[in-house]
Amino acid sequence: MPVPFDQPITVTRPYLPPLEKYRSGLAEIWDNAWVTNNGPLVRRFTAALRRQFGTEHVSLMVNGTQALLAGLEVLGIRGDVITTPFTFAATTHALLRCGAHPVFADIDPDTFNLDPAAVEAAITPATRAILAVHVFGRPCDHAALQAIARRHGLRLVYDAAHAFGVTVEGRPLVLDGDMSMVSLHATKVFHAIEGGVLICQDQATTERLDAFRDFGFSGACDVSEIGTNAKMNEFQALMGLQVLEHVDELIKRRRLVDAAYREHLAELPGLTLSAPPAPGIRHNFAYFPVLIDPERAGLTRDELLDGLRRYNVFARAYFHPVIPDLRAYQHLPCTHPLPVARRIAAQVLALPLHSELTPEVATRIAELVRALMTSPENGKLHGRRTGEVVPSARG
Ligand code: T4K
């Protein structure tokens, strides 16, 4: 029978640069006595991200949620917006906060992203935009979504929170659409403690975003629109600059963990692995989602989640439930059936995947999953009794 891990294995864990290095970077902030409001490190970080994404049209914000909200506001998005029910709450919150009305369309069973056919079927005269998510860093069917957007005169915005480092035929995924938002939260492949990046298509919009995050100031005294305070600070930018130096190596490490899981979880009845990246796609290995079919597996996703916890492994049911089933959304009419999204949300489990995890640990986790699935009693009889603290800020 497997042995519980000594230390909690969490779904993710941020890479932190050597403490001495961050400390020496802090000296520059102290010397400058400049800690926020578009300081020198934020400007340097912006320039580095412009090189990273191969575009000048980059605006940095304090976090991904504020960035998405700012982006939607600046694009003037109101009215009905077709979006995915299979995402983190922040995607849909941004729509409601800017006065738009989310219309949920179903997702593709393989990529878990918006199904273009379902999007097209949901369009009405009130539709103004599509807000799609490259969930788990896997690209949406951009060609199909773009064709639909053009045909119907809609804006196309991507929540690319998970998509840092993903390229399609060598081109950064975040260049697609009218605008993309990348989250730089500590739980992401690449982070700046907190942070958000907006990538748009023209200089005028970039300047509006830069003003919008700074209360709408354009020039010293004039406020040209009702902006907000969504400015990144120097401590975040310092972290971002230092993590950026290592990000390619971090993605390589993630790839090895992904490969270990794939090798050791293959052909397990009732467990479906996500498809490996299609040719031409450079993946970032942000998450390792699997599906647990209770009929074939003999246990539910929640039973497996609980069994893993008893061995000190804290996988997560990202993203369950679907957004319209969250208490805050239950008042909204859900006009389209969402059978695929509901099935995926009921079966999905994100196994631990981060750059600090070794392939050996992933192999042990995979063996534990196998043991729990082939003999679910293992999860009930052995391991620790939970009630232990779940390592999440949300408890
Ligand atoms: N759109 C999408 C599609 C998103 O997924 C997100 C955020 C957003 C928009 C909004 O972007 P931001 O405004 O956040 O930039 C986490 C993250 O807080 C959130 O950023 C992320 N998506 C979401 C998928 O995951 P929780 O509630 O699951 O986080 P939490 O605190 O439970 O942390 C998860 C695990 O990470 C913990 O078990 C332990 C580990 N951890 C976490 C933190 C914060 C650490 O080891 N160290 C840490 O400092 O939401």
Taking all Cα atoms into account, the compactness measure Rg is 21 Å
**Widest sheet, order of strands:** 2-10-9-6-5-3-4
Q: What is the number of beta strands?
A: 15
Question: Compounds present?
Answer: ligand T4K
Strand content: 5-15%
Coarse structural class:
alpha/beta
The global form is globular
Q: Separation of termini? A: 28 Å
- Main beta sheet strand tally, sense and closure: 7 strands, mixed
| Helix segment tally | 14
The helix fraction, in percent, is 25-40%
Topology:
Elements lengths: L8 E2 L8 H14 L7 H14 L4 E4 L2 H11 L4 E5 L5 H9 L2 E5 L11 H7 L4 E7 L8 H11 L2 E5 L7 E2 L2 E2 L6 E5 L12 E5 L2 H10 L21 H11 L2 H19 L5 E3 L7 E2 L5 E5 L1 H4 L3 H9 L3 E2 L24 H9 E4 L7 H16 L2 H5 L14
Parallel strand pairs: 1-14, 3-4, 3-5, 5-6, 6-9
Antiparallel strand pairs: 2-10, 7-8, 7-12, 9-10, 11-13, 13-15
Helix pairs in contact: 1-8, 2-8, 3-4, 9-13
The protein binds ligand T4K.
List keywords for this structure.
38% helix; alpha/beta; 14 helices; 395 residues; 7-stranded mixed sheet; binds ligand T4K; single chain; 3-stranded antiparallel sheet; 15 strands
What does this molecule look like?
The chain has 395 residues and is α/β, with parallel strands linked by helices. Helix content is 38%, strand content 15%. The strands form 4 sheets. A 7-stranded mixed β-sheet has the order 2-10-9-6-5-3-4, with helices on both faces. α4 (89-97) links the parallel β3 and β4 (100-104). α1 packs across α8 and α9 (247-265) packs parallel to α13. The protein starts with 8 loop residues before the first strand and ends in a 14-residue tail after the last helix. Bound molecules: ligand T4K. Ligand T4K binds next to α3 and α4. Ligand T4K is lined by residues 10-14, 63-65, 87-88, 90-91, 133, 159, 161-162, 183, 185-187, 196, 314, 318, 391-394.
